Structures are given as structure tokens and as C-alpha cells.
Amino acid sequence: MRFWDTSAILPLLVTEKESVLCRRLLEDDPEMLVWVLTPTEIYSACYRKVREGMLGEDVISDVRSRLMVLETCWSTVVSFEVVQAIATRLLAVHPLRAADALQLAAALVAFEERPIGAEFVSLDARLNHAAQREGFQILPDDPANRSASPCACK
Description:
By secondary structure, the chain is α/β, with parallel strands linked by helices. It is 53% helix and 11% strand.
């Protein structure tokens, strides 16, 4: 079971250059762990893309349908107070945005703060760096498939 950041889930729902890679990772291990606010981040990213003209408004209903199916494959981390406390620590030691700190904190909670060997799926370079420093194995493991800058989907 792998923890999935929003940046890696979005290509499963809309066509992006990383879609094939993310689908391959999901096929390899279809059990997903996600933060409870991940769907909100997904909709935020999609509506931003609609506003910027990168997606048509009609795609949102497809995303909603695909997301409902995908949600049947995942377990959700919902421990708000514990996640918030860990996220606060992460913000002090890593250059993360609040949403990214919450994602990483949720992953830490999911693995009982012992992430050594646990897999973290993300396309966000800054978040990947912090997750790796916290002990996670980062996927995709090919640096050529990761963004050089933090994911702009949030």
C-alpha cells in the first residue's frame, strides 16, 4: 500500500504527460492511502485548469465519475489533530506549503511515523525531497519523470 499525493492522483483523472506512469504505478499496487482532503485538492486543481483554459468545463463531470471509482481503491487518513501537529513540525524543518505539509503529515500518520521503506507517490519535487528526508521511498523513482519544480496543481 502506497501513500498518494494529489499531484500523482490528478494524472489518473485527466490526461497529463505523467498519466501513463501513474496508471502503471496504480496497476502495480492498487491499494492507495490518501489524505482526507485530497478530493478537495483535486477539484481545486481541475477548476484552476478550467479557469486557465487548460481543461474544458465538461471534463469536471468525467473527473467526478472517475474520482468516485478511484475512491473505492483507497483508504483515507482522517486524524486531523495528529496530522495538524505533525504538519506544524514539518513546516519548521522543510520548505513546504501548508497543503503539502498536511499531505506528508498524513502519510507519516498512515505509517505510524515509521516510514522507512514505505512508498510515497508524488510528482512534486519539493514534497518528494521532504518525504525522502522523512524516510519515505519516493515513486516514481526515475527523476526524469518528476517535475523540476513543485507541482502547480494545488
